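Workshop exercise sheet. Pairs work together: one partner reads the sequence aloud, the other fills in the structure field after running the prediction. Swap roles for the next sheet.
Pair: D.N. / O.F.
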Amino acid sequence: MFYAHPTAIIESDIIGEGTKIWHFAHVREGARIGKNCIIGKDVYIDRDVLIGNNVKIQNFVSVYKGVTIEDDVFVGPSVTFTNDLYPRAFIWEDEKIIPTLVKKGASIGANSVIVCGVEIGDYAMVGAGSVVTKTVIPHGLYYGNPAKLRGYVCKCGKRVDKIVNEDDKVVVYSCGCGERVEVIKNG
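Structure field:
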């Protein structure tokens, strides 16, 4: 049903058809991985993590308990998700876990850090090397340390800046691919 490289450690039995798990990856018990995913070399997926369908997680990513990744998400190389806002080696309880949600179609650039408790919106894009400390709006383009809103992106991933309609509540941008992106003002 799915492929796992012989060096991968797979403790979960909930992995979707067509998924590929590569060299030295570790998938802990209770993790759920959807169909047609690619889990790269040296990826760590903690207990009870939820990963949707068609997700691509590049090499050296750490996905800790409390993270949910929806369908069609791209996670670049060496991204780290956290799950504890006040970590101490001598204090650990599952109650300290703060959930993080990555919504459908979002992309997270290489070497980014996602601090727990945020939501990364549908089709948002986080630039490489960013530190995400606050929620990312749908279609938002965020980058920097800390990551800040720098513009908007289409489903296709291209930046949009041509306004085709605007009123008191919504700005509508158009993309060269033909899609339109609606952004709620002050939302």
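Discussion prompt: The chain has no helices and 26 strands. What would you look at next?
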